[in-house]
């Protein structure tokens, strides 16, 4: 039967249509790269006209920034939601790392947008990723600081691990996670749990020695 005369087809809500276009944009940017991706490709993949993409998101640059912000928010939320506040710091970090590696593996196009595309095309894209990274670094810094405070040695030799040391360790840990995620996703050689365990063994075990006041020094 044909459509009833005088009854209009239900229009898709703006937010649904916008997310549909952004899904197409993330896939296109992630696989083709920012420079090579075209608004025509994005519109075709989303099943809409190119003028409609421009109507909703104004320009290719603004569309890319919107994609970065959405993927950054989703990754940050996944990490923070997994690390339940009631857990011990090492368990929080373990849960956060596993969530990080699982999310990046399950969303390869979004991870490519954040880890490869945004960082290599200058401002304002790199600044958006930097903001996300600093939020995750602050989260890891707080976990390391909490672990330090709960260590008996913190009142003695372990007290040397403070301030800038803690932040530097957090920066290093986040950088290692990013690098490992990039390698794991490309090689397909590690599950999220295996990747998280690799980093915990590498980083947290070493942190345990620092908490006890043990430091490596060149001889």
Distance between the termini: 86 Å
Low-confidence stretches: 1-9, 152-159
Provide the helix percentage: over 70%
Count of distinct strands: 0
- Decide which structural class fits the backbone: mainly alpha
- How many helices in DSSP terms? 9
What's the SSE pattern? Answer: HHHHHHHHH
Strand residues, percent:
under 5%
User: What about the largest sheet?
Assistant: none
- Average pLDDT for all residues: 84
Radius of gyration: 22 Å
Shape descriptor: elongated
Give a short overview.
The chain is an all-alpha fold. It is built from nine helices and no strands.
Characterization of the model:
There is one protein chain. By secondary structure, this protein is mainly α. The chain contains 9 helices and no strands. The chain has helices at residues 14-32, 39-46, 50-57, 60-82, 89-106, 108-117, 125-149, 164-187, 192-211. Helix 5 runs parallel beside helix 8 (164-187) and helix 8 packs antiparallel against helix 9. The longest helix is centred in the middle third of the chain and has 25 residues, at 125-149. It is elongated and about 65 Å long. The protein starts with 13 loop residues before the first helix and ends in an 8-residue tail after the last helix.
Please specify the SSE layout and strand pairing.
Elements: H1 14-32, H2 39-46, H3 50-57, H4 60-82, H5 89-106, H6 108-117, H7 125-149, H8 164-187, H9 192-211
